[in-house]
Design brief:
alpha+beta; 18 strands; Nucleotidyltransferase, domain 5; seven-stranded mixed beta sheet
């Protein structure tokens, strides 16, 4: 199996290459701004937004496009299109949502007149055609944009000497990202490598279902009649705390705001990796060979394609909900252990009883509680959804709830294990995190 790993690397000859990297970082910001203006004009004139292919076609002859290697310029436009698409999807339900901002900082004199404009050093991505890797000497040659060459036909590049942590071998280099660390005041490299790993046999033939949500970020049901809940309290707390702290900063693009954004991102990433690791460990322990994950395509829209309105706090939770990112992390960690991950449509999984197959939306009587009138049982609503995802109830060839027999236990559906995230220890049983005896 092939996987991609990213390694952070220190630039050893920083004083020799920092000016060239600065120019390319500024060029990335300028191209972002040009494409941003173009996208805003289209939005104002048509009510729609261009996708990345439209931006590439329109701007490939623009002078700012030539400030980077062609593939690097394409990546900037892809990132902007992704940002506009995210804003476009949530603008109806959250009136405070703003389109992506420009990457620049204005300085004014004491009379309020602008005297200086500065572009930040944006991340620059080089793909394979813009990279030459010297594995023996730990060096990469990064192609310059045409605007930064001495003459148009010059084969010029930035020669960067790097060093990774001990024990890391950089091979099959697919991508290089130059990232500017404002706190350290220097550039560093992120090296994306393609590696082949030997996939072990599956831990067993059991299965699991994962239902992703807002209140409980994940509910997991196992065919061994066990279930676990993973509340999203930590993510929600950070989602309320960090925006407020960032708003207190005098400059939204200043060092204070940058540090807060970075810390927020790191905590969110840590949560996703810790959760995926814990679920995979539980799957190995319980002999799971396949994980079904709810596919949440369209979760932000209603039946008419309009954005759902979940209330002020609900919208904040929903639109900060990086379920695709988490699913990708889970899939990667599971495959390394020989476990398959299958994405299952969530249609009807929340309103169908996983015991008898009765479908009735009213049976979900309140948040967290599912009551089936057919056999007068009550159990956790999220676990019920996870079990239906495990059974894949929307497939004609899947095992229906009713076919499993009437002797199935319901206790595990009503009393799942609950794990909370601890920043230093990862996911732990709730009683241990809150300081109580189990």
């Amino acid at each position: 199996m092939h996987i991609h790993r990213t390694y952070r690397a220190t630039i050893l000859n920083h004083c020799e290459v920092d000016e060239s990297l600065d120019w390319h970082g500024w060029s990335a910001s300028k191209l972002w701004n040009v494409a941003n203006y173009h996208s805003r004009q289209i939005w104002e004139n048509t009510g729609g937004i261009p996708d990345d292919s439209d931006l590439k076609s329109e701007l490939k002859t623009h002078n700012k496009y030539k400030g980077l290697h062609s593939q690097s310029s394409q990546r900037v436009l892809e990132e902007l299109a992704e940002a506009f698409n995210s804003w476009y999807g949530k603008r109806k339900s959250d009136h405070r949502a703003n389109p992506p901002g420009y990457r620049k900082k204005n300085y004014y004199d004491n009379k309020g007149r602008r005297v200086h404009e500065e572009h930040p050093r944006s991340t620059v991505t080089w793909k394979q055609k813009g990279i030459r890797h010297d594995t023996k000497n730990g060096r990469v040659r990064l192609s310059k944009g045409a605007n930064h060459k001495e003459h148009p036909r010059a084969w010029e590049y930035i020669l960067v000497e790097y060093e990774t942590r001990p024990g890391v071998t950089v091979e099959n280099l697919q991508q290089v990202r130059a990232v500017y660390d404002k706190e350290k005041g220097r550039w560093e490299l992120h090296l994306v490598c393609k590696q082949e790993v030997e996939t072990p046999d599956a831990p067993g033939e059991e299965s699991a279902g994962v239902d992703l949500g807002i209140c409980n970020f994940a509910a997991v049901a196992y065919s061994t009649e066990q279930a676990d809940l993973y509340p999203g309290n930590r993510l929600k707390q950070d989602g309320y705390y960090f925006p407020k702290e960032i708003a207190k900063c005098d400059d939204s693009g200043g060092e204070g705001a940058t540090r807060l954004h970075k810390k927020w991102s790191e905590r969110r990433t840590h949560f996703f990796h810790s959760l995926a690791k814990h679920i995979v460990e539980k799957c190995i322990e319980r002999g799971v060979g396949q994980i079904n994950v709810g596919k949440l395509a369209g979760v932000r829209e209603d039946e008419n394609g309009d954005s759902k309105n979940w209330g002020r706090h609900g919208n904040l939770d929903l639109h900060g909900w990086a379920f695709d990112r988490f699913t990708n992390i889970l899939e990667y960690k599971a495959k390394v252990e020989g476990i398959d991950v299958v994405k299952i449509p969530e249609r009807n999984t929340s309103k169908t009883c996983c015991m008898c197959g009765r479908e009735d939306e009213s049976q979900r009587v309140e948040r967290g509680l599912y009551v089936c009138e057919e056999h007068d049982d009550a159990f956790n609503a999220d676990v019920n959804g996870a079990e239906n995802i495990r059974l894949d109830i929307n497939q004609s060839n899947s095992e229906s709830p009713a076919s499993l027999g009437e002797d199935r236990s319901t206790g595990w559906l009503a009393q799942p294990g609950v794990y909370l995230h601890d920043l230093s220890r990862g996911f732990q049983p709730r009683a241990e995190v809150v300081g109580c005896k189990p």
